[in-house]
């Protein structure tokens, strides 16, 4: 299981939101690239970057900051937020992004996911963000009637590299991950699952580790690292 630090970018700054609310942010750094360097130095194998402005405006809005991260670190970067078409996917891959996360369009336009997987095997991740088990889209502003497990199963044969599963109610709240929902999703598909939302301490990482045999291959964490309740080096040592 790998520990993936999250860098959420809003107006060029490194921020964290509470439950995805754009009006409830805490700024943790003016320089996302410097933050990425910090996590790389602590042993991170990958960094999860979200263009929060892009998620709301439906197109990339923090490309300059993302390129600076790419220039600063040697480890792979995965990016999500505002990725709605093949052109955006191709653009990000061309500048050096390793994996592309498709969220809203996995609901709106599943054919986009399938086409992207055909064109770029192993490079496409589906982001499934759920509120009480139901998928939320459009920067978490709209909750659908589609269950997270149902959406994941739609892409079982598409060649998706992984599913990033976030429990919105726990995101940024440091209340512990939703172990039951994460396990249910992982058991429902053969696609590897990366857990997200609610991680607070080393104990939460320890609680997630028994889910690895079911297909949970990693965990994304942000707020806990920035708040200092979770030490990245210790978490990586534990999982190794």
Automatic annotation (TrEMBL):
It is found in: Cytoplasm. The keyword Isomerase applies. The keyword Oxidoreductase does not apply. The active site is at residues 8, 129. It catalyses: 1-(5-phospho-beta-D-ribosyl)-5-[(5-phospho-beta-D-ribosylamino)methylideneamino]imidazole-4-carboxamide = 5-[(5-phospho-1-deoxy-D-ribulos-1-ylimino)methylamino]-1-(5-phospho-beta-D-ribosyl)imidazole-4-carboxamide. Pathway: Amino-acid biosynthesis; L-histidine biosynthesis; L-histidine from 5-phospho-alpha-D-ribose 1-diphosphate: step 4/9. One of its GO terms (biological process) is L-tryptophan biosynthetic process. GO terms for cellular component: cytoplasm. Keywords: Amino-acid biosynthesis, Cytoplasm, Histidine biosynthesis, Isomerase. PANTHER family: 1-(5-PHOSPHORIBOSYL)-5-[(5-PHOSPHORIBOSYLAMINO)METHYLIDENEAMINO] IMIDAZOLE-4-CARBOXAMIDE ISOMERASE. Belongs to the HisA/HisF family. This is 1-(5-phosphoribosyl)-5-[(5-phosphoribosylamino)methylideneamino] imidazole-4-carboxamide isomerase. It comes from Desulfococcus multivorans DSM 2059. The gene is hisA.
């Amino acid at each position: 299981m790998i520990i993936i630090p999250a860098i959420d970018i809003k107006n060029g700054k490194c921020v964290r939101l509470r439950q995805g609310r754009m009006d409830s942010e805490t700024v943790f750094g003016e320089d996302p690239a410097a933050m990425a360097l910090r996590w790389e130095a602590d042993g991170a194998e990958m960094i999860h970057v979200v263009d929060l402005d892009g998620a709301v405006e439906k197109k990339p809005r923090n490309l300059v900051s993302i390129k600076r991260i790419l220039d600063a670190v040697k480890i792979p970067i995965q990016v999500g937020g505002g990725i709605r078409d093949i052109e955006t996917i191709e653009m990000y891959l061309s500048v050096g992004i390793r994996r592309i996360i498709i969220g809203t369009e996995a609901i709106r336009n599943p054919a986009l996911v399938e086409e992207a997987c055909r064109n770029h095997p192993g490079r496409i991740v589906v982001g499934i963000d759920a509120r009480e088990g139901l998928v939320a889209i459009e920067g978490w502003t709209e909750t659908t009637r589609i269950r997270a497990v149902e959406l994941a199963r739609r892409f079982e044969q598409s060649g998706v590299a992984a599913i990033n599963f976030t429990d919105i109610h726990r995101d940024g709240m440091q209340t512990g991950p939703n172990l039951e929902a994460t396990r249910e999703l992982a058991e429902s598909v053969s696609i590897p699952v990366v857990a997200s939302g609610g991680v607070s301490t080393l104990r939460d990482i320890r609680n997630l580790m028994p889910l690895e045999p079911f297909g949970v291959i990693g965990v994304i964490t942000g707020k806990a690292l920035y708040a200092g309740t979770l030490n990245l080096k210790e978490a990586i040592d534990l999982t190794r």
